[in-house]
Write a structure and sequence with these properties.
Elements (H helix, E strand, L loop, with lengths): L3 E4 L2 E3 L5 E7 L9 E6 L6 E6 L5 E3 L7 E6 L4 E6 L8 E7 L10 E5 L2
Parallel strand pairs: 2-10
Antiparallel strand pairs: 1-3, 3-8, 4-5, 4-9, 5-6, 7-8, 9-10
């Protein structure tokens, strides 16, 4: 099991930006395909973006062109740059190994509101 700690969330106005960070415990993050997920209030958790061990990226249609996932394997950290935020982006954001049964962290709350 790899443990992750998400940070960087907060309250932002529509059109604003945030950068989320996901720090992994231990080392060896480089071998994993990583992803960001989110859980809007009252809804199920959904996939947002993923990055392969080789750096290839893919995005959910709802965030494509606005969000960017990246990774720094030397720092054991994955990032999610979120631009042009919308109220519907309000959610708790989580990172995890993509499509795995790894346990979830506490997430970080993102609230987009004027």
């Amino acid at each position: 099991q790899v443990q992750f700690v998400e940070s960087g969330g907060g309250l932002v106005q529509p059109g604003g930006s945030l950068r989320l960070s996901c720090a992994a415990s231990g080392s060896g993050l480089s071998i994993y395909n990583m992803a960001w997920y989110r859980q809007p209030p009252g809804k199920l958790r959904e996939w947002v973006a993923r990055i392969s061990s080789g750096g290839n990226t893919d995005y959910a249609r709802s965030v494509k062109g606005r969000f960017a996932i990246s990774r720094d394997n030397a720092k054991n950290t994955v990032y999610l740059q979120m631009n042009n935020l919308k109220p519907e982006d309000t959610a708790v954001y989580y990172c995890n190994v993509f499509a795995s049964l790894n346990s979830w962290g506490q997430g970080t709350q993102v609230t987009v509101s004027s």
